[in-house]
Task: inverse folding
């Protein structure tokens, strides 16, 4: 799962990959192995290198607020907003917060306009995410089971010019 943030004017890309019952978190060129994650109300406890680190925070549509052992931080989420989506034909964003139930496509797949790309569960209902244009899938940002927030970029499609 990929996330983009802005901190003090600097854009930061992160990638979280499940590995052997834990996760590898890549932030720029650095990798951090997270052995365990315990989620609670407004807090998360991470097991890293035999230590338990407690972080308190709040996740809103536009920002993530974190208070941890080294102090406080605010991360501005970098998203493809409504204006960006219309500028980037084929880029799809989550219509609401939810969980990805099924991913139907992979990068490199050719899709027709209206084709189902993934199924998102939100508010106890299933929502089909469909291709707004015909083209080639260039990137799928969320795996099955991943949670997304409203406005998160889900899939990117390179539009094929009609002939």
Result:
């Amino acid at each position: 799962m990929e996330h983009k943030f802005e901190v003090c004017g600097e854009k930061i890309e992160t990638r979280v990959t499940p590995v052997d019952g834990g996760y590898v978190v890549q932030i720029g060129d650095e990798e951090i192995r997270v052995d365990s994650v315990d989620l609670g109300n407004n807090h998360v406890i991470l097991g890293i290198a035999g230590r338990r680190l407690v972080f308190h925070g709040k996740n809103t549509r536009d920002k993530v607020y974190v208070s941890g052992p080294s102090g406080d931080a605010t991360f501005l989420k970098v998203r493809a907003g409504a204006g960006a989506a219309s500028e980037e034909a084929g880029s799809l964003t989550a219509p609401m917060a939810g969980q990805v139930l099924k991913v139907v496509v992979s990068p490199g797949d050719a899709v027709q306009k209206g084709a189902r790309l993934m199924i998102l569960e939100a508010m106890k209902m299933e929502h089909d995410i469909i291709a707004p244009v015909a083209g080639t899938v260039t990137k799928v940002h969320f795996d099955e089971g991943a949670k997304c927030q409203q406005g998160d970029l889900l899939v990117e499609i390179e539009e094929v010019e009609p002939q």
